[in-house]
Amino acid sequence: LPVEQQQQQQQQSSVIIADEVGSSHLPGAVFPDAQSSSSNGNDNNNNNMRIKQNPNAKNWSKTNSSKLTNNATPVRNFSLFNLLSRNHMEDVFVSLSEMLKHPPKDENGAGLITNADYWSGNVRLSRNTHLEIRINVSLVRSPQGRAKFFDCSLTPVPPG
Length: 160
Hints:
Layout: H1 3-14, E1 49-53, E2 72-76, H2 80-83, H3 86-101, E3 118-124, E4 132-141, E5 147-156
Antiparallel strand pairs: 1-2, 3-4, 4-5
């Protein structure tokens, strides 16, 4: 392949999540491999963009005004309200509430390990409701045991 096509393929494979997960204008894609908005890198819409190092990716740069080099991969943070279909939001938010109700384990860590700080289930995206996605949610606590934040990850469920 020509060098330009190789760079484009590397760029696409190193993007973790683009502007809209499962966007309806990217048929067949659960997690789009390229930025799906037409906004440039200088506007306020990109405030949630983080750069994550990818040791397996080669250097590349975006075609718009913002350049990413040194094996950088853009990572987007999204709200669950924007990702989940209405039918599945209740299950997810009830589980989040239950996690917050459970007390933290003992200070020395000797307490009974339960699934109180973890939940997993299959949901559907708001834009592509025909796609089933597995959501894994972990409650991250401070050293004092207070709830700090929820770590959520989405993985496609293979059809079948």
